[in-house]
Amino acid sequence: MRWDNLAENPAEPAENTTGRTAALFAADAVTTRTFDTPEFRGITFHEVRARSVVNRVPGASRMPFEWTVNPYRGCSHACVYCFARRTHSYLDLDTGLGFDSQIVVKVNAPELVRRELASPRWHGAHIAMGTNVDCYQRAEGRYRLMPGILAALRDHANPFSILTKGTLILRDLELLRQAAEVTEVGVSVSVGFVDAELWRTVEPGTPSPERRLDVVRALGEHGIGCGVLMAPVIPFLGDRPEQLRATVRAIAAAGATSVTPLVLHLRPGAREWFMEWLGRHHPELVGRYERLYANGAYAPTWYQRRVTRQVHELAAEYGIGPSHRTAPRALPGRDEPQISPDTSGPTQLTLL
Q: Which member of 75, 80, 95, 329 has the greatest number of CB atoms within 10 A?
């Protein structure tokens, strides 16, 4: 396993809040643990003391945000399509089962966030969380890193957003409410489909779509507006008109403030694992996927636009407007301009 001189992307290292590129952690700061409990059986945790945790997104990235905090690497949600799988290769770890079961935990993340936000070089930029792997994955129930991170962001009145498939975010409701009183906060839950059979095979470690929508409902009942990232829409498996309708209808019923569709994209690392899964479960679709994704990680623009148009029409029908924002809606108490929908292009790159 390769730890020293590791940055977020070896080709273009992440920049921390000091403006310098630094290794994330050193080999002598790693403790490996396993826990013999049902929820963690088969999972290995690598506890590290990171050198930096507030990191700038590489300039070449398509992401609509500049700074991130990722307290974990690897994810027990085990989504077969997860684009973050490639990051495990930077540690010489397997991007398939290794990504699902070898979890790096930055145990000092809360203290680092507090320290880095206090730096005179930090000017209060928006911080996105859950954009690489889920910050409310199963490990968070044991390590409890997010309460300290949220408290630091609250105390520094620093704007932030969270994207999650996890129900554990409800544990931190009070911290979210407190933060929203002093800064702009956004929350989005990812629900790409409500098909139970599809969920069990492509997202085996996640809470069910119904439970995630319960999170949206609960947040709304506590005065926290929550958008839904309808992601991913999976070609030929989750894109039939009746599937899209059922998903948007359920999202609307949960009281989501917005719905943003995102078509499946297959980056290196994720592509190989997903195609292997596809060959086992749906071999008849392999050729169709090879043609649809022949030009790279993203589905053709015409396909993205078609899905986007269908979802926007359904959202209007069920009384929720499509979201074209580059961050989730703020929590109550923040005045925001209304943005008119634009269906001229795809929403492929909108994460939050």
A: 75
Q: What is the dihedral of CA 242, 247, 250, 255, to 10 degrees?
A: -140
State both tokens at 266.
């297959």
pLDDT tens digits, one per residue of 174-200: 999 999 999 999 999 999 999 999 999
**Residues 6 or more apart in contact with residue 118 via CB below 8 angstroms:** 156
- What are the residues whose beta carbons fall under 8 Å from the beta carbon of 321, sequence distance 6 or more? 258, 315, 341
Cα-to-chain-centroid distance, residue 334: 24
Burial of 4 (0-12, 13-18, 19+ CB in 10 A): exposed
* Closest among 134, 259, 258, 272 to 192, alpha carbons compared: 259
What band does 45 get if pLDDT is binned at 50, 70 and 90?
Answer: very high
Q: What is the DSSP letter of 74?
A: S
Whether the CB-CB separation of 265 and 234 falls below 8 Å is answered with: no
Predicted local confidence at residue 119, as pLDDT: 95
CB-side neighbour CA atoms (13 Å) of 174:
3
Cβ atoms of 258 and 321 within 8 Å: the answer is yes
Tokens found for residue 77: 């949600």
Give buried/exposed letters for 113-136 (b at 16+ CB in 10 A, else e). bbbbbeeeebeeebbbbbbbbbbb
